[in-house]
Amino acid sequence: MATAAARAAIGDSEFDRDTAAVPRPGEPGTYDIDLSAGWMIISALNGGYLLAVLGRALREALPHHDPLTITAHYLTASQPGPAVVRTETVRSGRTMSTGQASLFQRDEDGQDVERLRVIAGYGDLDALPDDVRTSATPPPMASYANSVSSHDTPGVSPLPGSAAILDRLDLRLDPATAGWAVGAPSGAGRMRGWLGLADGRDHDALSLLLAADSLPATAFDLGLKGWTPTLELTVHVRSRPAPGPLRVSLSTRNLAGGLLEEDGEIWDSADRLVAQSRQLARAPRG
Amino acid sequence: MATAAARAAIGDSEFDRDTAAVPRPGEPGTYDIDLSAGWMIISALNGGYLLAVLGRALREALPHHDPLTITAHYLTASQPGPAVVRTETVRSGRTMSTGQASLFQRDEDGQDVERLRVIAGYGDLDALPDDVRTSATPPPMASYANSVSSHDTPGVSPLPGSAAILDRLDLRLDPATAGWAVGAPSGAGRMRGWLGLADGRDHDALSLLLAADSLPATAFDLGLKGWTPTLELTVHVRSRPAPGPLRVSLSTRNLAGGLLEEDGEIWDSADRLVAQSRQLARAPRG
To answer: Which InterPro entries match (chains A, B) (predicted)?
Structure first.
């Protein structure tokens, strides 16, 4: 998305505005938010966006700033509109704290329904020691320029139907994992892509939570079609990402019992493994 | 451990007795347990044992029987003796339910201290469809007979010092990942072993939770020494294990910022990938 417009800054972007929850006066740890329809996929809000919403509320509630490990259980489908985040400080340590948060929306009968629940360990990425000993290597994938933008190629949509979230992302799939979009899935269960935000905002620890659930489902590369609802998603944030688009690499090795795992690696422009993720999802029937 | 004694049965074994929590009359979802010193490593109870204790309490509390995905955050070190498990049913669905549980122990001042908290999705492994499409292959490792038993080789102890848990396990390390015990770690960050229970009980979904945190730390194979405390551990149980010892394969690719991940695969005797795990742990200083 080459654009003449100014790039949005961290703290002043679509993502930041749409994840901002407002502390409710007189109720410590409780936040109100209007969930934005801009992060819809078909008929529900994206799970990575919701994880970022709760991750940001926990940043406010806890003494530490950065999610180091966060796990979400998705209970019911979230819809755009008003929602309440209730947080609990489980433990406050010197270098790390643990928190829990839930998102609620009101149903037609006026009852609060829990949408998702997360538990997370927070710390300060900048305060961690500098040691790095890694045997992980960046995923082999096509360059940004040679990848397939969902904006330029209408056929490459994560799902049949409308996906508003694509307007918020600068998502470019590695052609090697985009064959499913033209009826030729590789069968390997892989999905790789470059991921920026459409308004040019660089990534931070919170947008890594979005990135962990922003690519099309690996099930599509297995030749399956349809909805792949996430049951549980865990993200480890291992480093603050450098500016520039991320490389996100997902793989599924084991589809069994109607369930599949999606293992994710997120690499930044400095070739650092900045996050690892794994989710358990229900496999599409198709 | 060839033994002439009868093999313990699932439901009547050391593991079953030591994970049995008793419902507290008049307090639905609350259970009392006397945590057994038999699962100690050095100065704390093993994290896999504690996960199994909470996993079993959730089995009692929830309408579904088997943990499909369970995440624990370890807050403070658990000690042998009385403890209370408090469970919450978060959501009950037709095929899956979600629960949360915490373990508490009383400190010297008589205050309840939370030891660990878990959130989990339960289902019924036997009710899942039979489809299996997997590209995962069992870990390359030495046979059971050619692996190094912690009972036969005193040098091969997960940590310097006493580890009562080794008397409860039939743990045989692949010699390729046991060099650290004689001062020759491979540096690859791997740990592989065969894992049975010492009394001959076969594995089930609950003992997979124990198995996910029963091998020596991968950090030892990186040449590091000392305690590697688990901050968070997630286990996906993908199938009920067949009888016989498990193969457990752990790997660490990324040590950074004083933290490391341990990725685990657990394979059963029928060559099925029965569980996947990942933990975030604090790296030893050594």
So the answer is: ACOT8-like_C, Acyl-CoA_hotdog, HotDog_dom_sf, Sec_Metab_Biosynth-Assoc, TesB_ACOT8-like_N
Provide the residue-wise pLDDT of chain A in tens; the chain has 286 residues. Answer: 445 468 999 999 999 999 999 999 999 999 999 999 999 988 899 999 999 999 999 999 999 999 999 999 999 999 999 999 999 999 999 999 999 999 999 999 999 999 999 999 999 999 999 889 999 999 999 999 999 987 766 554 545 556 889 899 999 999 999 999 889 999 999 999 999 999 999 999 999 999 999 999 999 999 999 899 999 999 999 999 999 999 999 999 999 999 999 999 999 999 999 999 999 999 998 6
Q: Which residues constitute the domain of residue B155?
A: 148-282
Question: Residue B271 domain-assigned?
Answer: yes
Between A121, A128, A256, which is nearest B232 by CB? A121
Sequence letter at residue B208:
L
Does one domain contain both A244 and A156? yes
ipTM: 0.95
Q: Pick the residue from chain B with its C-alpha nearest to A113.
A: B91
Q: What total of structural domains would you count in chain B?
A: 2
Residue B91 maps to which CATH number?
A: 2.40.160.210
* Claim to verify: residue A246 and residue A155 sit in the same structural domain: yes
C-beta atoms of A278 and B278 within 8 A: yes
**What does the alpha-carbon distance between residue A195 and residue A285 come to, in Å, rounded to a whole number?**
28
Ranges of beta strands (E only) in B109-220 are: 112-123, 132-134, 148-149, 169-173, 190-197
